[in-house]
Amino acid sequence: MVEGSAPNPARRERWRRSVEPALLVLTLVSLAGGVVAWILGAPGAADGFWIAGTVIAIVPSVWWVVAAVRRGRVGVDLIAVLSLIGTLLVDEYLAGALIAVMLATGQSLDAAANRRASKDLRSLLLDRAPRSSRRRRRDTVETVSIDEITAGDILVVGSGETVPVDGWISSPVAVLDESTLTGEPMHVRLGDGEAVRSGVINAGDVFEMEARATAEDSTYAGVVRLARDAAAESAPVVRLADRIAAWFLPLALILAAIAWAVSGTAVRAVAVLVVATPCPLLLAAPVAIVSGLSRASRRGVVIRSGGALENLGHATTLVMDKTGTLTSGRPAGSDIVTAPGYDAVEILRLAASADQVSAHVLAAALVQEAKMRDLTLSYPADVVEEPGTGIAATVDGRRVTVGTLALPSHAPQWARAVLARSALDGAVVVWVTVDGELAGAILLIDPLRRDAPRTLRRLRSAGLNRLVMLTGDRREPAEEIGAILGLDRVYAEQTPADKVSRVRAERESAVTVMVGDGVNDAPALAAATVGVAMGARGSTASSEAADIVLTTDRLDRLADAMEIARRSRRIALESAIVGMGLSLVAMGCAAAGWVTPALGALLQEAIDVAVILNALRALRGEHTRDTVVPARTEDMLHRFSSEHEEMRDQLSMLRDTAQLLAAGDPRQAEDSLRRVDDFLTETLLPHEQAEETELYPALAAPLGGGEATATMSRMHAEIDRLGRRLHTHRRRIDSRGGIDPDQYEDLLACLYGLYALLRLHFVQEEENYFTLAEYEERPDEAPQR
């Protein structure tokens, strides 16, 4: 090593990992050897064993104290070092050996709790960032290192490749997956001359671009620097034990000095230091924290350090990404709108059949939506796919196109209404034509996780008082989700640098937790007090940057982790306080001369056993608030959830019928109203009645009584009332041969009211009840979906 250079961190970590277990083994052997020698009548040999164990513990202990002082911290180890040295000076060797074992045990437990994965974000560089690129010069294409790229170079980006540097598109069209930077799963279509950023993925055909910056000065390299800088500037964790030791250490030293001065013998001072050895801090607090880590891991939460668990236990601010964290991160169908004469289910089946052979993210969403509804798909023929535009295929003898479409100025009213809705909902519109005629539109959104509202309520009750969302998405959909979830603040259209700045600002005023899942979230995760990565589907980079990784794709595990952290920290604190209180009493007895150093060490061991047993309570949960439903009720929840999925698109009939009435088209409105009434009387109202008579009584016991479903029962009654009212209107129409003018106002009120009520009712049942089957586990079974 060059003189003056810092030791290799990896080598230092390997050295520490080998020293800690060796220290524990050697001190235990020395203590046991001395006890055996003493029993066999060899006191000299016993003292030799105990002296060796004490000296063995002194060497690394002094190193740990010096290292802590260099960092500006004086921790619990200092009292232990003074006690070890004191026992040698006054010939209390057994006490020294006992303290050595306690110190080695505490260090081993603390090390087990604090070892964490590397935060150098190598995955940002190794997993995603390209090493080379293809550069075109006239008619020649050469492969060069990205370090050789300069502004003005023409680069060729193949399908599936990562854009190496910032630049401008120089091809007619480029289809890009920007989720690496923005988190949004929808593909973006750019044209000639439009700006493109490094780090995004080419989701279409080969295109060319002109570089406008070097790799070092481009967007992706900036994300890497942000993450590294944020990780480097994160303040070291001040552990609970060190905070208590800050006042306990001077108190112990003062009392020892007084005992020495009053008695005139150093033995009493050593006795005070022996019983003052903060083993409740060295042992009990780490035991509680390690127990919390173990319990969290059983819930699918990997917490990489005891410090992260402690910080999570007293955090008050939660900052969240939207896509993949609060939402599913995958497009899903929100509605199907059809032209007059077409069936919504058939439009979805035709579109999904054509899209089966496409690799586009939206095509996969359509196929998944069709499979969820158990639709039978046909294999397409004569397939022609144009990246960024869509696909055309022959399905069951009909020519079907699925994709984007520029509507003409004379587009039908229903199509223009779809565009207006998509802008309000933040949805992507997939247009479907059949034999050259515009037949329907499928609106795709990134849906809110069903468990998100319930999880955020649990987090608030666990002590978080500020919930903030950061997203690269547009303001309108972001604010809509914020309103639904009751968030305190929403920041939209955020770049990775913006996210880091916001997290730093929140961290200045409170202990802040950041939750994310993408590469674009990695810098913010590193900047937060505690970074939490959705690791099941999230990027490797976000998991590397995080202190906590949720290994399952379930947001409710974050609430579990918060509750476990709160409980573990509380148990650690009470164990430490009770243990130190007992130590204070023992210190008083030692100062009065009633306790010798050896007896003090044994007394300290008794205190340790008591507080360790208390700390082990962190392995168990409190009376759980998780709702465990019987298997029969869970099957019932799955059944009604499936029925919701089947009925969801049919709800749009209510709104469409109202629009026909408002447009003054009575003949089509009458036909549509009859279809609505058939749907209500044959499908929806029987479903609601079955929920009321079968599901809600079954949920009464798991939810703590019938009052838990009383509000929803009242909604059932209102749905039934409006459904019967519409049925009465239909009978009047059938008997009179048409709609009377005096029926229009009430029909509109019923249709729009029932549509809004059903949408709300479906969401409430899915969030409050159906998630019990979808996200909860029965103790004796694996997680189910």
Level-1 CATH class name of the domain at 631-775: Mainly Alpha
The residue ranges in which pLDDT falls below 50 over 5 or more consecutive positions are 1-10, 113-126, 232-238, 775-785
Tell me roughly what share of residues is in helical segments: 55-70%
Distance between the termini: 55 Å
Number of strands: 22
Question: Count of helices?
Answer: 26
Secondary-structure content class = alpha+beta
Which keywords apply here?
Calcium-transporting ATPase, cytoplasmic domain N, Cadmium-translocating P-type ATPase, alpha+beta, seven-stranded mixed sheet, Calcium-transporting ATPase, cytoplasmic transduction domain A, disordered N terminus, disordered C terminus, Four Helix Bundle (Hemerythrin (Met), subunit A), 785 residues, elongated, 26 helices
Topology of helices and strands:
Blueprint: H1 9-39, H2 43-70, H3 77-89, H4 93-114, H5 122-128, E1 132-137, E2 140-145, E3 154-157, E4 167-169, E5 173-177, H6 179-182, E6 187-191, E7 195-196, E8 201-202, E9 207-211, H7 219-233, H8 240-263, H9 266-276, H10 279-298, E10 301-303, H11 306-313, E11 317-321, E12 332-338, H12 344-355, H13 361-372, E13 381-386, E14 390-395, E15 398-403, H14 413-425, E16 428-434, E17 437-445, H15 452-461, E18 466-470, H16 475-485, E19 489-491, H17 496-509, E20 512-516, H18 522-527, E21 530-534, H19 540-545, E22 548-550, H20 556-591, H21 597-615, H22 631-648, H23 652-662, H24 666-703, H25 710-736, H26 744-775
Parallel strand pairs: 11-18, 11-20, 18-19, 20-21, 21-22
Antiparallel strand pairs: 1-2, 1-3, 3-9, 4-7, 4-9, 5-6, 5-8, 10-22, 12-17, 13-14, 14-15, 15-16, 16-17
Helix pairs in contact: 1-2, 1-4, 2-3, 2-4, 3-4, 3-9, 4-10, 4-21, 8-9, 8-20, 9-20, 9-21, 10-20, 10-21, 11-20, 12-13, 15-20, 20-21, 22-24, 22-26, 23-24, 23-26, 24-25, 25-26
